DNA sequence: CGCAGTTATCTCGACGTCAAGAAGGACGAC
DNA sequence: GTCGTCCTTCTTGACGTCGAGATAACTGCG
């Protein structure tokens, strides 16, 4: 089955036969797929009246395990947003009663963000919904292909995640 | 090499051993990689004083071939943004002299967006830069692995691109 | 012809993100 | 100790995107 990137690559080969556009076969697909996933997630979460960005923060805290708290800095590396954005997100989640800010006892510059009970419930319930949706999307691939794909992607993400750039 | 998604998955398995979080191995990597790519592109384009969104629109027109014109609607499907966003983008590109709006001769509701000569130069020059950057990122993989990865990704993107959702 | 439904583009207000920088605290060298 | 540097979080203003709705024009059925 052909996709939009096939058309895009064919167009470049016609217009710029002098260039090797093979890298687009991989990376344009990654970008476009991510955009499709964003839209799909927005739909899925709207059933729980949750925005994708809320999900990202709440589940990062949920994953941390009891007592479900992380510093804003730790949340930055997990969600790939800037510090200004994170301050804003925490403000809004705190206003909704899903998280609370506590002073860091070991560093007076620092803050700890803790999940409230309601925040934890929301995180748990919406995760199940997300997994169901993702499973449907991945049903195009066999289990072996999914493993293969995950492995190839890891090789591309690892440099970004390990050598902070 | 381990990446952030490996840590994320391990954390879920510890916190929610009742759930099968295998889908995240693929799709969380896609989302995170796309975010890293966005940042890298922003840097690469800043040398040409071009924003990623400008690149997206200009190259879509460039790919169309002479006379380098498309309707706003055609640009929507290629760039995955909403119509309000596209109107705004065309306004700003027109103001910079990189594109111009022409009436569609066959449909009076319609508009054609055409690349100016300067817009075309900008598109051509920045594409070369992007490809160089992407090639560096993909050097982690062998040619055969790149082909394999592109094929697996195609199977996931095709349903989105063909059954408009 | 006239009307309903559809399609193409634009308008508008709300919202979230970013980049840059400020303020305050930690920490090592000396 | 204390100075300079680095780190952590928050503040701010500009900007781009979205969603919903408005407008205008094309289409085909009766």
TrEMBL record, chains A, B:
Membrane-crossing residue ranges in chain numbering: none
Keyword Transcription regulation in annotation: yes
Xref: Pfam families: MarR_2
Domain HTH marR-type: 23-158
Keywords for the protein's UniProt record, in alphabetical order: DNA-binding, Transcription, Transcription regulation
Domain of life according to the entry: Bacteria
SUPFAM superfamilies hit by this protein: Winged helix' DNA-binding domain
PANTHER family assigned: TRANSCRIPTIONAL REGULATOR, MARR, TRANSCRIPTIONAL REPRESSOR OF EMRAB OPERON
Protein name: MarR family transcriptional regulator TamR
Organism: Streptomyces thermoviolaceus subsp. thermoviolaceus
Gene: tamR
């Amino acid at each position: 089955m052909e996709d939009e990137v096939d058309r895009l690559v064919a167009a470049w080969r016609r217009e710029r036969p002098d260039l090797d556009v093979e890298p687009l076969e991989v990376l344009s697909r990654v970008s476009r797929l991510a955009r499709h996933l964003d839209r799909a997630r927005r739909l899925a979460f709207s059933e729980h009246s949750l925005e994708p960005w809320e999900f990202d923060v709440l589940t990062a805290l949920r994953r941390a395990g009891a007592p479900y708290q992380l510093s804003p800095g730790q949340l930055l590396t997990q969600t790939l947003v800037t510090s200004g954005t994170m301050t804003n997100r925490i403000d809004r989640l705190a206003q909704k009663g899903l998280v609370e800010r506590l002073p860091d006892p070991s560093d007076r510059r620092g803050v700890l963000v803790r999940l409230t009970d309601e925040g934890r419930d929301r995180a748990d319930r919406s995760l199940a919904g997300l997994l169901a949706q993702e499973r449907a999307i991945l049903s195009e691939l066999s289990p072996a292909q999914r493993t293969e794909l995950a492995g190839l992607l890891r090789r591309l993400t690892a440099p970004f995640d390990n050598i902070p750039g």
